[in-house]
Specification:
about 130 residues, Cytochrome Bc1 Complex, Chain D, domain 2, globular, electron transfer activity, signal, Cyt_c-like_dom_sf, metal ion binding, transport
Length: about 130
């Protein structure tokens, strides 16, 4: 009986911890974001670079960062309602050309799901 109880408590603990992992770790995401910094900025003094600044990106409609010249393809998708929710952003960070074919972003994507979740968590700290 003690073994069954231990298994149930362990399973409950893993189940309760899963959403926290799925949300990502912003501190770890800051380190992964170093791969993005050549083209994107975040923070109080963020400005557009080769890519748009990413403050407030989570939940924002695509193509709306003021002063950035987006690809025609992204603007077309934005008119169709493309929004940077967690799911879309995760797909984009995995393989940008699958989400926005002929887009400007030359980055091939992040390979690890954990890195993607962590970057999204990090970006969510900038409103």
């Amino acid at each position: 009986m003690k073994t069954v109880l231990t298994c149930l408590v362990t399973a409950l603990g893993v189940t309760l911890a899963a959403p926290a992992f799925a949300e990502g770790d912003a501190d770890a995401g800051k380190k992964v974001f170093n791969k993005c910094k050549a083209c994107h900025a975040v923070g109080e003094k963020a400005k557009n670079k080769v890519g748009p600044m990413l403050n407030g990106i989570i939940g924002a409609p695509a193509g709306k960062v003021e002063g950035f010249k987006y690809s025609a393809n992204l603007l077309e998708l934005a008119e169709g309602g493309l929004t940077w929710d967690n799911e879309t952003l995760a797909a984009y960070l995995t393989k940008p050309k699958d989400v926005i074919p002929k887009g400007k972003m030359s980055f091939a994507g992040l390979k690890k799901e954990e890195d993607i979740a962590n970057v999204i968590a990090y970006l969510s700290t900038f409103e």
